[in-house]
Amino acid sequence: MITLAEPVRQVNILSAIVQAVASEFGCPVYSDEVLEKFKKPCFFVSASSTMTHQTVNWCRKEFVLQLTYFPKDTNKNEITYMDVIDRVQILFQVGIQVNDRYLHFESIKDDRVGEEQDILQITITIPYTESIAHAVPSDVELMDEVDMEIRTQYDLGKTKAEEEIWNSVITNEEE
After folding, report:
1. What pLDDT is recorded for position 120?
2. What whole-number distance in Å separates Cα of residue 4 and Cα of residue 12?
3. pLDDT for the residue 160
4. Positive or negative, the Cα torsion across 126, 34, 26, 67?
5. How many other CB atoms sit within 10 Å of the CB of residue 29?
6. Using CA atoms, how far apart are residues 21 and 25, in angstroms rounded to an integer?
7. CB-CB contact of 39 with 28 (8 Å)
């Protein structure tokens, strides 16, 4: 029997990344709700996600995290920004461990924003696949085998002679 991994909670992804960033940079990491009286240098973090069903049993999820870096007023220069980007890229070269899963990163992109282009924004995209939990009622019998006959539009237009040739080929292959 296959044991599936526990679903990954977004809060656990966010927490793992925030802990790694705070440890690497030794500065505060705030949520977007903090609007004033924050200590620089610091990061702000916000996240969004998408879930797309792939099959009845699987879905593709994408977690997008935005890290916004505010340097000290005396460190608003290209060297500071490049150092921060390099350290984030090295910190998350491949991905991050979140509970019993290792999530690979699809991309890490950086941009500069603000009136003076002095705020660094780093966007991290994390795609992953999860199983969809289904509750199978205990009184339901599951199928073991299914026999199917598939007819295509080509099959419908065959002559009787073509049908006999086709059936003989299939019969010979099965023997």
Report:
1. 96
2. 18
3. 73
4. positive
5. 18
6. 6
7. yes
pLDDT for the residue numbered 162:
72
Smallest Cα–Cα separation from 63: which of 29, 112, 107, 97? 107
pLDDT in tens, 55-114: 888 999 999 999 999 999 999 999 999 999 999 999 999 999 999 999 999 999 999 998
Which pairs count as long-range contacts for 23-31, CB under 8 Å and 24+ apart, including other chains? 24/87, 24/88, 24/91, 25/84, 25/87
Q: In 3-state terms, the chain is what percent helix, strand and coil (to 5)?
A: 30, 30, 40
Q: How far apart are CA 84 and CA 74, in angstroms?
A: 15
What's the CATH superfamily of 10-131?
A: Phage tail protein-like (3.30.2000.10)
Residue for token pair 């969809």 = 132
DSSP lists the bridge partners of residue 121 as: 68, 111
Q: pLDDT tens for residues 107-152?
A: 999 999 989 999 999 999 999 999 887 655 666 677 778 887 776 6
Rounded Cα gap, residues 70 and 9, in angstroms: 28
Distances (CA, A) of 67 to 2, 42, 57: 37, 10, 33
Residues paired with 67 in a beta bridge: 45, 122
